[in-house]
Design brief:
Length: about 525
Amino acid sequence: MNDAAALLEARKGEVGGPYAWYVLGVLVLVYVLNFVDRQIISILAEDIKADLGVTDADMGFLYGTAFGVFYSLFGIPLGRLADMWYRGRLMTIGLSVWSAMTALSGFAQNFGQLAAARIGVGIGEATASPCAFSMISDYFPKHKRATALAIYSSGLYLGGGLSLFIGGIIVQSWNNAFPGGGPLGLVGWQAAFLAVGLPGLLLALWVITLREPLRGMSEGILSPPEPSPWPKFFTELSSVIPPFTLVQAARTGGRAFAVNVAGLIVVVLGALGMIALTGDALQWGAIGIGCYSVFSWSQSLKRRDPPAYQLIWGTPTFLLSILGFGSIAFVTYAVSFWSAPYAIRTFGADPAIVGLIIGGVGAGGGFIGVIAGGRLADWAKSRWQAGDILVASLGVLIPAPLMFIVYTTESLTTFYLAFIPMATVNSCWVGIAAATSQNLVLPRMRGAATSTYFLGTTLVGLGLGPYFAGKMSLVSGSLGTGILSLLAAAPVTVVCLWYVWRRLPQAEATRVERAAAAGEVFAAKA
């Protein structure tokens, strides 16, 4: 038995054991705080609009695009770094950065300052899920992975729900106590950012103590450690961040540079067209940067890591799963952001009560939905090769009619009653999407796969969904109409998930062979 195999044998008992569940518990806390810091701007939206004089489209940009584009961009090199470096250390650094930037949001005096802080939050948060997905996939076997990742993903709903409750209470209490502004001249929404940002710095001290799992120990495929991760990280970074993308492509060769420039021209023309159509230069400029950077990175990955490129960008099943789940996120992110402002604006509801009810429903219903979805997916997959994808489709088919009730009723009570099942079922797909992205690649590629997965859920879902609903609200004069217009994405979701359901078993079964054909070398296989 060689050293790698002996090490694998010595630590395989940790897979699915008590320490694995402890790690999962800590990672859930991180993800809860991740979404508290990300989502709290929803309950603060009406106050921010009044103080800073911004529109619904601007708020969609602040919540979605300013955060989501840079989250996606930096998620690519940071996801690759998670594949090469200590994941606990990387998550600690990211947690410290996004917590500090959330706190700094509390000192914003104008739209530009708040947008800059949101960009910082996005960059910091880009470290969390690539590290967490990779660690969880190493600590839990494949037949429990959807459940474990669903439990982790429940932090999305717990954090999102808590943010509404905490934010509503803080804003109301602060503004009642300090009608003209409190210490340092801060008003309620600014105090809320400070209150949720600072605890993350303490949680970072806990995360740094987590033990690093062996890569691939849950599947018996041990990936060797990367001896020099930082040069590769900066190479990865330069393949994503303009204008370094052009420099790297030029160094590679004439054809690579020509392809890169051609991609840039197509993206610029597309962005200019959307700016001319909507008048929103910041929105489409940011989306254009994101699209070009993703294209540049994919071409760079093709040259530098053919096996990873083959299993991610060279696998139609992977790409269509990203588009399909991203189109679900297009709806769910927008609904999670705009529901609280909708209730306040439409029914004149008290922000604290809205935060309590919608936040409680979002946390409780989302938690139940994502855990039940993960468990049901593991059960379905054990009986049918792609049964989990059928479970994920419930997250599209059931909530759609409920959305019509929620955003057309004239009764606040009916709004709340229909919101409960909608929010619960709406979350069943999240753990399934995460597990699908992990099951289609090799252990050493999981950080990159997670980053690519979040390109769909973040660049498409978060970068476009909240803005689209806000823009349609501005055009139609009705926030309800803006939210319901999101259902235009449903046909895209159905077509993509149907294809994935048909092709997923073969793609999973052939990943090792396809990686080997692309040049992958395996250190140990049990």
